[in-house]
Amino acid sequence: MTDRTPDGGRRLDRRDFFRLGLIAGPTALVAACGWDGGGVLAPKLRAFSRVNDWVGEKLLLSPTRLARQYPVGDRTREPDFPAYSITLNRTHAFPVRDPSSWALEVGGEVRKPMRLTLERLQALPRVTYTVKHHCVEGWTAIGTWTGVPVSTVAAMVEPTRDARYLRFDSFDSDYSNGWDLTSAMHPQTILAYAFNDRPLRPDHGAPVRLYSPIKLGYKLTKYLTAMTFTRDRHGGYWEDQGYPWLGGV
Amino acid sequence: MTDFPMPAVSAAADEPTRPLVHRHHWLVRVTHWATALLLPMMIASGLQIYTSYGRFGLRDAPLAVPNPFGSGGVPAWARLGGWLAGGLNWHFALAWPFVISGLLYLGYLAVSGEWRGLVFRPRDIGPAIQMQLYYLRLRKDHPPQGKHNALQKGAYTFIVLTGALATLSGFAIYKPVQLGWLTALFGGYEIARYVHFVTVWVFVAFILVHVALVLLVDPASLRAMTTGWYRGRFSSHD
Fold first, then answer.
1. Residues 38-97 of A with CB under 8 A from B
2. Which of A157, B122, B220, B238 has its CA 20 to 30 A from that of A245?
């Protein structure tokens, strides 16, 4: 009930201010410093990120659910579809390989390691889809990608029981990515050699890149050189610096 | 006399006559202060993530929406994580205690029945108007109220809904393919990301008003939210 004689600020005593300070102080400090843990908390946060990787892979990821496809008319204007590479950042030029001498080394924990030329890849059954690209930075763009499902190549090389992960290497400086097998065997995960109906350009990872609408862009290794089935989990260029390993969307 | 439209501050002698009552369950207090700590950190790490791409919409189809950081970017003091990966790791780690705390609080409200005193219902519209008139000094006496007045009910109901919206829009942009149905409910990834961004400003506005009103109108509630015990001007029960 309303009191005619409220006590105003009297009850906000010194202890209350102390308690408030206990909470507000560290919060303000953390916010004020743009603090990533100063080498103390950052590794713990990265370790905790593996919990979210587990939830993302084991609970949320469906091996069969397909990403939505868009009409070709919804494609993002090509000049507006961003492209970057580590080599570009270092030398101001995209890395380039002659497609006629390029080949993908497929090996590791497999019974039949193979060396697949571009010609050989293009002779395999292809998949084409127009999908949305999700960048970890928060931007999106729509494009059409054509290539061979990773699962098709996996069936050819016959992974052994010891194959638990995949590792993709590139000729873009030291760029690489480690993948979970569920995402890699997803029907929309492909070794792409065409973008918007034309051969892949150097800025988008020519001659062949990994593409999948179920992963963030930084997981989609461009300028592929090797696809290796491994026992142990490989990190990756950005993953080793702290980005979430799964990167699934 | 204060400049604020409320009755004069009491004489110290009156105080002991006011009963000391237990006002907040420990679960309410713990989840309240957990949220007070976590929400600013969720906002700061979220702004760090936002900084990587401070626009909305597809790359070639920007959404025509208001954006307070239009060109300037987020000041460093309002960011947490140092860089994008740091911001992501903070955000996705703190999301766990933040959401769990919110669910515990809602669970407590449901089990205890205290939701009845907090949920804003149509019958609260009239009292809310009276309360607003009082704050605008168009009404002299403080309208009678229980534990919370109608405006408070409106504010607390609204902010809980905002929390739910922030959580759902967060999941919608975290897994726009695996949770594609949720993302579609928001009208797609780009709109969901903007909704998530807008909840930040709702939270910030709420925090400012909430803290100001606690200090100006009912500072005793700060003690109640900390120790559970209240000796203030308002009833602790409906």
1. 42, 45-46, 48-49, 52, 56, 60-62, 65, 67-68, 76-77, 80-82
2. A157
